[in-house]
Design a protein that fits this description.
Number of helices: 28
Strand content: 5-15%
Distance between the termini: 51 Å
Radius of gyration: 28 Å
Helix content: 55-70%
Oligomer: single chain
Shape: globular
Structural class: mainly alpha
Length: about 525
């Protein structure tokens, strides 16, 4: 794949720009790296190397929407370049749109050895999405094409398992292991399959393999106990499996791994209440464990106690302040659109928090916020939702920095950029809290919608979502002849127009905000516009 890409000629000008941007990136000067590439793109419009480098930079910075913009441009101008489809497929994967990712990966195939990396991603996605037959056909096609009969043998085995062809799957997994005997994960998977399809225990099979397979990776005692307990449980010998785990826990009573194994085993044995209590303790210890979370969520769902589960998650969030991933999980319970759904603040409390905020900027027309990745605003909103107050820019910066550090990254912006964004963000939030407090409509705030389209809130009116667009309040010279209310794909968009008669009259930190009385008057105008539109539709 990259070999085809590298055949595109480079000019000296291009090489200089690429080298400079790479140097900036290695120094973690991401904004400078981006500016260098954008400048090069002005001189060499739509050059595939530049569009690719920008896409990869945005991916590295966790800005998939910007990366997608660049790859769409790459595909549009270079439709015959397979790498462009592969790159866009990666971005669709990042955006969790597997269907589009698979479509692009298929377009990226060239029926050559250059396809192996694309193929590994495509086949894996196909198996995940229950397209095992298609995955098998593709694997066999490339095994024949490249004359490599054991190519993707492991994935072939998993696809065969999905089709309930256990004997064939076992054979293919053995082929995969023989091709990579130093792979511990592969060995353990093979031993799991052997215990399901044969009468020998994993320990017995392992000893046979050790004597017959050169360079086989070694398993330690705990690896074998893990496999043996799975084998015993699979053969309805739960008590013996539990005894093995209990013996280990006597030596290592704090072991999270073995306490988790015990909890799952008790669940298999039907000791639901006992296992759930153990899972609850595990969750309090490590709320990032998705397997533990899934068990507890299913339990509370079956018991019709989902609110209790949400309360437990919120409790953990309060005690572990910076768990942004857990906040996103909580939002997903019940598929909440509103990122501020769990926030207990109303407009009055929002203003009180605003009064105590330590900010040094006041320009709501500063466009710096548009250059920040969406995750900066998402983390800002998560902190407000969890703690019911607005964090100071320096505190938010610390949280963002730690979140990026978890991914081996640093933010592509500075504290000063956050400080410049704060006036715009709090202005948008004051619109949300005015609507939430003083209107009768369900209201939601979605960071992505504000970041990309300046939608400060979405109100649901008579079942139709109405997006409140405040772009005219944030930008000088915005076209005020545009209609106030327009039809959108699934509802309406209402543009909040500035007017001298309704200029914001409440001043905080030298930022002008609308008062509740002003908002009530504006709300009447909003409802009149909407009533007219609904009558016409």
């Amino acid at each position: 794949m990259e070999a085809i890409y590298k055949q595109i000629p480079e000019t000296e000008v291009l090489r200089n720009y690429l080298a400079l941007s790479k140097e900036f990136q290695e120094l973690q000067l991401y904004r400078k790296a981006e500016k260098t590439l954008l400048l090069a793109l002005e001189k060499l419009p739509n050059h595939p190397h530049l569009l690719t480098r920008l896409s990869n930079l945005y991916l590295k910075l966790d800005m998939p929407e910007k990366a997608l913009t660049m790859t769409n441009r790459l595909v549009r101008h270079h439709p015959d370049l397979p790498f462009s489809y592969f790159l866009r497929g990666k971005i669709f994967e990042e955006l969790q749109d597997s269907k589009k990712a698979m479509t692009d990966y298929e377009k990226a195939l060239t029926e050559s050895k250059n396809d192996l990396y694309v193929l590994s991603r495509l086949v894996t996605l196909m198996i995940e999405h229950r397209r095992a037959e298609e995955a098998l056909n593709l694997i066999r096609e490339y095994q024949t094409l490249l004359r490599k009969p054991f190519l993707f043998a492991e994935q072939q085995a998993e696809a065969l398992l999905q089709l309930n062809k256990h004997a064939a799957a076992f054979t293919k997994m053995r082929d995969a292991l023989l091709g990579d005997p130093a792979n511990k994960r592969l060995l353990k998977r093979y031993l799991q399959l052997s215990s399901q399809s044969g009468k020998k225990s994993p320990a017995e099979v392992y000893q046979i393999l050790k004597a017959s397979v050169p360079h086989l990776v070694s398993l330690d005692e705990l690896d074998l106990v893990e496999l043996e307990t799975g084998y015993l449980a699979g053969n309805d010998q739960h008590e013996e499996a539990l005894a093995r785990i209990s013996a280990i826990l006597k030596k290592e009573p704090e072991s999270y791994f073995w306490r988790k194994r015990r909890a799952f085993l008790k669940l298999e044995m039907g000791n639901v209440e006992e296992s759930v209590e153990e899972f609850r303790i595990l969750f309090l210890q490590d709320s990032t464990d998705k397997e533990v979370r899934s068990v507890l969520e299913n339990y509370f769902l079956v018991q019709d106690q989902l609110d209790n589960w949400k309360h437990l998650v919120q409790q953990v969030l309060l005690e572990n302040a910076n768990q942004v991933e857990l906040f996103n999980y909580l939002r997903g319970i019940g598929a909440r659109e509103d990122w501020l759904a769990i926030c207990e603040m109303d407009h009055r409390k929002f203003v009180e928090s605003l009064e105590h905020l330590n900010i040094i900027n006041s320009d709501v027309r500063d466009v710096t916020y548009e250059k920040l990745p969406t995750y900066a605003l998402e983390i800002f909103i998560s902190q407000i939702s969890i703690h019911n107050y607005i964090p100071n820019p320096s505190d938010l910066w610390a949280v963002i920095y730690q979140e990026r550090k978890k991914k081996g990254q640093v933010p592509p912006f500075q504290l000063e950029d956050l400080e410049a964004a704060y006036p715009v963000w709090v202005f948008a939030l004051h619109v949300y809290f005015l609507l939430k407090t003083y209107s009768k409509y369900p209201v939601s705030f979605v960071p992505r919608l504000f970041q990309n389209e300046q939608v400060a809130a979405t109100a649901v009116v008579n079942g139709a979502p109405v997006q409140v667009d405040i772009s005219m309040l944030l930008r000088d010279g915005e076209n005020r002849r545009l209609k106030a209310l327009v039809k959108s794909d699934d509802g309406f968009r209402w543009r909040w127009r500035p007017s001298e008669r309704q200029a914001p009259e409440m001043m905080l930190h030298e930022i002008s905000f609308y008062s509740p009385d002003q908002f009530k008057e504006i709300l009447r105008e909003f409802e009149e516009n909407l009533a007219e539109a609904l009558a016409l539709s």
